[in-house]
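The material for today's practical consists of a large collection of protein records. There is nothing in a record beyond a sequence line and a structure line. As an example, a complete record with its sequence and its structure tokens follows:
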Amino acid sequence: MSTKGVRIGLLTVSLLSVLLLLFFMFWTQRFTNSTYEIKGYVSSALHRDIPVPANARLIESAAYSDHPTQSRSETYELKHIGGEQGLYPPEAYFQKLHDAGWTELKDERMGNVHILNKAEVRIAIEIQENTFRIFLLHSDQDRHQNLG
């Protein structure tokens, strides 16, 4: 093998090493920037027993007077709370809800909407990439009264 062939081989290996290093740096940076951080918890205005990350920013509050299942809701912004495209539920937040006595009804989950229950209170939490919405749901008793 000639010296020229060895130099080309070494150059190819060097270029591949640099490309691999750049790819690795891009890949790890992608995941470190897409995490959320929770800095403690406060109570939601919907219900005092619903913890909300203290650093989440309330961006909307709504009431639904004629909706069959929803009573009120709050929408919060917290960067990367749901991971890329809202596909990854925030485990630390759901653990805090569990610690506060909320039980997720996994068989009622609909994609990124999680249904939780505590005593007579039912809530739904919809997780998006940078936001989450908490819905206070009507109880069965409320629904029966509204139906007459």
